């Protein structure tokens, strides 16, 4: 991200890594006391959440790189030049060719704006993963303060289910819904019945 000048990506990567490292260190410390499958399971979930956030960042960087290669200001100037040339055109063939060029430049501008919007969405999805890690860490600490090591080692006390697991499941559902936004109209029709 830094090499490409993607400052928002650099910041988000640092925040995601920090949230993951804090939770990972906490879980590894708790798991080091013995064969603790629950702590290991939490660690797997935390790693899965971190990796999903990193994939969103990678997609955002790839999109940022593509968008960065399109100079919108240059395209706007080209459109203005072509519009002036269109007014001076002498034949219908010239007008048609120039109009086609104008439309092509406008499509590139529209595509750049659309792709820029995708970057914002991908960063938001990454931030959601970061929040899942941070909230999970805070909830595990809170649960351990209330119930001791029983949260990770298990007991007959019926300790609440892992907040991280709930967050991961929730994040996956949100991710699936975001991927299916194009199908949202069809899904909404189900509720209308």
Structural summary, described in words:
- The protein has about 190 residues and is mainly α.
- It contains seven helices and no strands.
- The longest helix is centred in the middle third of the chain and has 56 residues.
- The chain is rod-shaped.
- The C terminus is likely disordered.
What integer value in Å does the Rg equal? 25 Å
Largest beta-sheet details:
none
Low-confidence stretches: 155-161, 181-193
Report the helical percentage. Answer: over 70%
What are the secondary-structure elements, in order, as H or E? HHHHHHH
Relative strand content: under 5%
Number of strands: 0
Shape verdict: rod-shaped
Total count of helical runs of at least 4 residues = 7
N-C termini distance = 47 Å
Structural class: mainly alpha
- Arithmetic mean pLDDT: 78
Structure at a glance:
This protein is mainly α and 193 residues long. 83% of the residues lie in helices and 0% in strands.
Which characteristics define this entry?
193 residues, mainly alpha, 7 helices, rod-shaped, disordered C terminus
Describe the secondary-structure layout.
Elements: H1 7-31, H2 37-68, H3 72-88, H4 92-147, H5 150-153, H6 163-179, H7 184-192
Helix pairs in contact: 1-2, 1-4, 2-4, 3-4, 4-6
């Amino acid at each position: 991200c830094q090499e490409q000048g993607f400052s928002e990506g650099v910041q988000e990567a640092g925040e995601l890594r920090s949230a993951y490292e804090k939770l990972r260190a906490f879980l590894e410390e708790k798991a080091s006391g013995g064969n603790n499958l629950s702590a290991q399971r939490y660690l797997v979930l935390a790693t899965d959440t971190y990796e999903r956030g990193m994939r969103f960042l990678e997609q955002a960087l790839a999109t940022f790189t593509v968008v960065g290669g399109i100079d919108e200001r240059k395209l706007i100037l080209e459109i203005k030049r072509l519009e002036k040339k269109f007014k001076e055109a002498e034949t219908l063939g010239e007008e048609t060719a120039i109009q086609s060029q104008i439309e092509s430049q406008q499509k590139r501008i529209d595509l750049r704006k659309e792709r820029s919007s995708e970057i914002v969405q991908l960063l938001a999805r990454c931030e959601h993963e970061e929040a899942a890690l941070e909230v999970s860490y805070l909830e595990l600490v809170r649960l351990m303060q209330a119930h001791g090591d029983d949260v990770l080692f298990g007991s007959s006390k019926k300790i609440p289910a892992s907040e991280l697991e709930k967050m991961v499941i929730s994040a996956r559902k949100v991710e699936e819904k975001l991927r299916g936004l194009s199908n949202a109209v069809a899904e909404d029709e189900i509720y209308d019945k």
